[in-house]
């Protein structure tokens, strides 16, 4: 195995100089740095980051736990986390919890063992108490966990408000909201709160149908289809506008309406939430939806975590709420 | 910091016994194991895998380099790699090369530094010579690199054959194939080879239009749309059947045809390749396409790499070609 001594010999400098270049510490002239880097390349020397991590107590690894990395919204979020991490010399360890509490707990254990520098937590099955026990820096997506764990999310309250207002302004008189499961206190529940408040403010009759918590099936479109048929179809005739808590659901509702000859948007108006890649690619219909920008959310999650890691003393927990906007499509 | 000595004290056993439990070496009675595990949990002790990796020379980390983790096909592939890795106690480091040779080279360097146990290489911009220099176990997706680097891919040759045959059997008399860039020798080029051979065998006039290599835009549907308009539209009237080398392209072609009042499938038949999540969710149209199963491909990539890592002496490079099938939709 090639060692730091071999690099020093090849470059014609001292071992200390090589060590300075590798660890980026102390003053090194440009020419000397080049000489050392050239020598490292010539004899194919890779500084052993495992050994360096032990010395420095930093691994430059970030754990990223998501419910399902295949879901278009999370796929986009992960990519943007990774791009930011790469620019700052971090790499990400990707974990799919599949919304199983046990798997999520296992991952946290594994990440602790691997001595990641911090965790971005986008999965939300474990009790908040479990996270509080973790001694690593954590940033959460879409969930308030504690005062010491900062969160990043889109402006769910405003998103719910503008979605509902848009339906009312488009002439709807009876509104339905299909929400995610409301029993875990996560930020997307604010979409339902905003929907109710806005309907009350405008004296519009409304109803909320809550999706049940479905394990292992997060990204399966088929499940949304079944849900619409079994839980929504019978009541649909009463409403002329529906705000769906995500785009996959909005699309499933649109397909159901089409199959059952319910004209969209004339008889039924539909608004989604996400504006994820599937929605952006989809040409027929172009969904009316609330855009939560996965690129900005990913960057904010990663930059918050890196700040916590690199400025342990000075960092004050700082939550980030990212703006949303209405994207007008053909379904309203 | 809690140490192995504290665990031994808490459990009332020797340090050697705790070490045996942690490293899963030597005989340990069931009761003793339980006692040690309970003690570890009680005082929140995580064995330091970094230190253990140094001793054992295994990190249980796998590098996964893809062009773009947001692309629906790769998002699905990654998820399935991760699920298999988790079952075998490995974790994955995710890297997006964005089809930039420099970034890909950087990643390989970073992965060497982090002492990953092996690399799954799904990005294909670097020269094959660069990979041969890497001393780690590598498995490649869709590319033959060398005799010592096993590859996994779908049966591109058969895929191209059944796609073309299906168009001919559906009555097409003039066929077009839109291929990916053919200048890098990757396995998906066999789709174009099979297309040409099948057309010749059936004496059907044909043409191949090659997509140029487009950086940083791998997952952007917009680019496929522009490509169809600029490079394909003018010639389209000559053909009654098109085999597209991926689903995103097939969808862009369908949308173009619809906008220009070209009836699909009556006047123009379209076959894609992938059957990725976007295609599966899409209801209108249901694309006719060749399914390459991302779940099986992901598992095969990961299991091949784990075999190479865990049986360094005995492993003989073993390439895997996964079956494809025609999914009949509404575009033929």
UniProtKB/TrEMBL annotation, chains A, B:
It comes from the Bacteria. Residues 3-46 form the HTH cro/C1-type domain. It holds the Pfam family Peripla_BP_1. Residues 2-56 form the HTH lacI-type domain. Keywords: DNA-binding, Repressor, Transcription, Transcription regulation. InterPro entries: Cro/C1-type_HTH, HTH_LacI, Lambda_DNA-bd_dom_sf, Peripla_BP/Lac1_sug-bd_dom, Peripla_BP_I. This is LacI family DNA-binding transcriptional regulator. It comes from Alkalihalophilus lindianensis.
